[in-house]
Amino acid sequence: MPGAATTTAVGAEAARRRTFAVISHPDAGKSTITEALALHARVIGEAGAVHGKAGRRGVVSDWMAMEQQRGISITSAVLQFAYRDLVVNLLDTPGHADFSEDTYRVLTAVDCAVMLLDAAKGLEPQTLKLFEVCRARRIPVITFINKWDRPGREPLALLDEIEQRINLRPTPITWPVGTAGHFHGVVDRRTGEMTAFQRTPGGATAAVEEQLTPAEAAHRYGGDWQRAVEELDLLGLTGADHDQDTFMAATTTPVLFGAAVANFGVRQLLEVLASHAPAPQPRVDTGGTPRGVDAPFAGFVFKIQANMNKAHRDQVAFVRVCSGRFSRGMTVTHAGTGRPFATKYAQQMFGASRETIDEAYPGDVIGLVNATALGIGDTLHDGPAVAFPPLPSFTPEHFAVLRAADISTFKRFRRGVEQLDAEGVVQVLRSDRRGDQAPVLAAVGPMQFEVAVARLDAEFGVPTQLEHLPYREARRTDAASQERLLGVPDAEVLTRLRDGALLALFTSGWRMRSIADSRPGVTLEPLLAAD
Ligand code: G4P
């Protein structure tokens, strides 16, 4: 019976998917570990190049001149590779100057995250912001402490920081032998065996590993081994052991140590992804019913990228497959409008490379070209109708008033602003005081403003001017509080177009608290709520 066979096959394909993203602060080694992971695994298809900074090996996509000048990739896309019998999807989380709402949104499309820390720096600001999104969405997190080949902090101190600052209990899987800077290898806490690493020049190939019994390790590494054993005893006493249930509930995190640049510990990370990271789970629809992974095809758009290819003026919608088998050419339904949507031009992409994709399964990401009818958060499905909850909006930290340089272009200006809002390029806020001609753009990263201005000019023929506002904090508020905040210096309340939410903006956290203290009854809620 083909139907039943297909259903089973889809379930099996879903079970061998691992879809994750790396959350880190710039320079912790995300590009390096991505390259190292790809080296251990077999990259599927041609699109294997990994994006990196200008001048390094890799692909730098070229959809905007701005991007080329800066040598960064604005495109969030996916690297797909095979490891053992698994298909691993690593979704890119743009950092550096291109940190934006897109970076957060990628986390709506993954089943797990790898938190990458620099051993000398521990938790850094961008990692903390991304972690908060993981926490709100209850995404299980695996921690990789990187750069162990050079001087850093004590491993126990790093674990303590994770537990104290973000209330996530570390449960190390491996433990380093040798202090940071004098790294010999790692002990697998489950077996007690040590894996000794030998450097290969530049980390260009997988590290040479040697398995040692505890006796062999003690003989070879003496005091360093002894110290690792003592630290392991201490960990054993505190019961910091991996527990799959608490990991899945996102209250504990398995921890690994390594040096991505030398390829140390990267295979161990892949092993943990394979054995512990969750496969795609049923996604709950707006009615609260989970849609099993082997239900008919369904997916949602988590990113829209316009004009990736200047020559074609195209628009690509990135869809995370949640259930069923996707095959190129199938006609699916756009849940929002009920209209059919043809998928002739489905692609898989990473950076500037594209290739046609023929089929995809839960956990995979497909790029739909010329998908102008689709918006962020839209559901596509086959078979009976299904809709997934809208994607959350994330907390903006940068604000600017946008005006058309020439008032006669207002109609196009308004259309362009609506389009950028629908695509999630920026959040658009309005108030009666400022009027429609001067909307306030809100962004997670300032680069989103530059993209908005460049696109309004290039695609809508509307030159615009930005006036940066001094606000840095945003909270959700209500109509009564809006009244109370009227005319208060260093504060302003605006309405978000996307969902009608009232956002109170403040120039600083300190000022926000002092305003709230002096006006009891003003409601200020965090914008990022757990769903
Ligand atoms: P990012 O994508 O997170 O921003 O970081 P990226 O991989 O670009 O790494 C940032 C810097 O840290 C790079 O050095 C990289 O070589 C280095 N790095 C990454 N992993 C390790 C590690 O395990 N050990 C050590 N010692 N360094 C590491 P760079 O000087 O900025 O670039 P490059 O000239 O080395 O390529």
TrEMBL record:
Annotated localization: Cytoplasm
Domain Tr-type G stretches: 15-281
Residues holding GTP: 92-96
Organism expressing this protein natively: Micromonospora zhanjiangensis
Keywords from the named record: Cytoplasm, GTP-binding, Nucleotide-binding, Protein biosynthesis
Keyword Amino-acid biosynthesis listed: no
CDD domains: RF3
PANTHER family found in the cross-reference section: PEPTIDE CHAIN RELEASE FACTOR RF3
Family, similarity comment: Belongs to the TRAFAC class translation factor GTPase superfamily. Classic translation factor GTPase family. PrfC subfamily.
Function per UniProt: Increases the formation of ribosomal termination complexes and stimulates activities of RF-1 and RF-2. It binds guanine nucleotides and has strong preference for UGA stop codons. It may interact directly with the ribosome. The stimulation of RF-1 and RF-2 is significantly reduced by GTP and GDP, but not by GMP.
Protein name, per record: Peptide chain release factor 3
